[in-house]
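Reopening closed ticket. The problem is back. First fold of the pair:
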Amino acid sequence: MTPSKLALVTACIGSALGTALLSPSPALAAAPQNPSGSLFRGLFGDGLEQDHGIKVHGWAQAGWTYNDNGSDDVSKQAFFNSDEGFNFNQFALAIQREPKGNVIGRVGPFPGPMPQEADWGFNVTALYGKDARFFKTYGFDEDLGVNRSADSDDENFNIAQAYLDFYFPVLGGSNLMLGVFHTPLENEIGFALSSPAPTDFYSHPYSFMHGPAKHTGALYSFKLPQEEGGSMLGFELGVVQGWNNMQDPNGDLDVIANLRWRSADFRTWVDWENIYGNGAGDSFAECACGSPFPAGSEDDDLTRYASYLTVSQVLDERNRVAVELSYGEQEGAAFAGFADKRDATWYGANLNWYHRLGESLMWNSRAEWFHSDAPAHVEMANIDPQTGIPDPSWGSFYGFTTNVAWTPVPNVRLRPELRYDIHSGNGRDAFGGGEEDSQLIGSFDITLFF
């Protein structure tokens, strides 16, 4: 799903410290050329990028998955596609201009003095592939013809992002985003910013699937004034149309409030991210879009809250770790009655380790635990497509993932990955078409950057 915040974190660290060795993502390895935008520069020259700061770039990703449970079903909570075999995940094309400043929206503050001139930018990113069906925006691109005619196993198309980006020399430096943008929440946020894309893992944690993908609205990020050379503190405040919606039927806006702290040496990042609002009536089964948490009708007032605490630490030139704690709750969750509850709560923890084996070789590993006290997410509901009757899973989920990512040339990433999942809880078994409580998945994906 795009460059992840994790990959971006280390790209920023590498830039701030002046060494590419601190970056955990394979696409950021030392290379004779920058793969992001290389095709456009090769065809039309670098005048647009050099003279105006406008970059045209993209990526394409395809992969294969295989499981050990004797069925075509793979963990829908971890993979956007649910079928074993080949999947064309993403073809993305973006045109963007990044404003010059010491604050990046959704990322946080940077060291150095505050630039004194205002600046502006924009981002428009289009996405086609099987992953695109999970990033449609209700009231914006969910009703395009290619999406109306597609079933659950077909490719979709969406405008993943379309926003204006402004830098202002106020407070210690400020950034304002207006439009449709990927969420500033969660450790893996999809493709919020430029390469490497889509993420450091082919599969995704359960906490990622239980968070929002994108928002429509405004996000204001600012850095507090500080003494030069000290630690940095930034805040984000947002007002958005709920989760994955441009039109929110309940008519209530959601509030985003985030805190971001950076150590003076930029090796330690702490992010506390929160979203709060009315979650009623904003999930739409007919287009498989909107919020993934069905709850009540548009006339109800049912609170939804999600919070994420992430700590990232560079250990040395080859190792970085990141720990994320997540918590969420939905009042009046539609499927909670299967657990004899009215409301649903979910929480968990992820531990990620990134180890650089060489300039073009990374070893990434992740351990996760996730618990839901009642079924809430539509993927957990396992709705029978013929009868429409839910047969949900809930309880504790454990996942262990490891991969080796090789970048033989700057524009190509090859990545074999192994993932093992365990479900311990009530309701339907989560894997193998409801027949298995564990699953081993092998996958291999190829990503091209251009």
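Second fold of the pair, where the issue appears:
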Amino acid sequence: MQHTTSTLLASLLIASGASLLTSTAAYAQAPASATPAAIPVARPVVDLAICLDISGSMDGLIDSAKARLWSIVNDLATAKPVPQVRVALLTYGCDAYESSTGWVVVDADLTEDLDLISQKLFALKTNGGTEFVGRVVDKAAKSLAWSTDPNSLRVIVVAGNEGADQDIEVTYQNASKASIERGIIVNSIFCGAPTDPIATAWGEVARLADGQFLCIDQGMGAVVAETPFDKQLTELSSTINTTYLACGERGQAAWANQTAQDENARGLSGGVAAQRAASKSSAIYDNRTWDIVDGCAAGAMKLEDIKDADLPEEMRGKTLEQKKAIVEAKQVERTRIQKEIQTLQAQRDAFIAEAARKNAATQGVALDDALKQAIRSQAIKKGMQFAPSAPALLTPAPSAAAPTAVPVTESSQSTN
């Protein structure tokens, strides 16, 4: 069976976002115009597990993931308050995996390190296999380090293009029911025609776990637009890396990966690199686990506790006050660059919105934009606030909606 192209992952992640933005646990955060934790306010807590079919027919799914990750991060970052998001990546349906695990692998547990998720996505390779939907949902629900905060929102998103009922040992019915019993929603995406008989089971995967179901027409594609602002945004994305102070060997590795993911984004297109730059200017892009600036701002690190050998060379041998001055200077410089990125990103968004308005009559509305409008309207009902939608966000493409014959939840049947 053929599969969707770049629309799929945009849809997959955005569908999660509809649920992601409704939690209300309290965490310190900064608005998008400042670094994390600059202004303490209540912040939603979100855990999102992305489960991707990487069998031989799903190259488009992986390509979509690489291209659309930063776009979805940016959309989540427009929510007020900006959510604290951890993402996990699981893959299934690959012959190279162990049959004893149902050909399921946890590539990354829940983490705020979005660069790590990007790294894992770029390392994926397809290999034909058996796709056990129930097994990957069950693995995600039971093995990940989900937040124990009762107010946190926990979401699994699973995508594939073959029957969801192949696993007779761990059925999707039992997996979905077990997931929602743990307070974890399951959203499903079937990569095929909504009239395909096997789409029905995919709808059940979501329905049984209070989630949303989407059936994607592979003829609809999502292209990452390029604009005159992309070059400068890409340059600023590199410049902001100089404001990070890596702590220890782990920090040095993460800092190097930050640059590597910049290069990966640039390798896809200027538009993807620009989207990544915008993500790096938001509060969701939080590197408190390895960056001394973010770590100290969030209270996750104390300068006086960091060994001299674990400090960047420019901080070694300094007094505590001198170290604090260096961290403060990096914080100020980062905030300046973030604001410059955000100004350019606003101009980029306006440029894209105007182009979409002019071409709407011939191109229609992109599926990902339609879904963004859907999740925003749903999240607003839950008390979240967003920046105004772009003029292009009008109605979904006809192929985005599942037919009434496919079981879906009420929220997934409407995009208004």
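Update: turned out to be a display glitch only; the data is intact. The chain has a mean pLDDT of 79. Residues 230-352 form one domain. Please close again.
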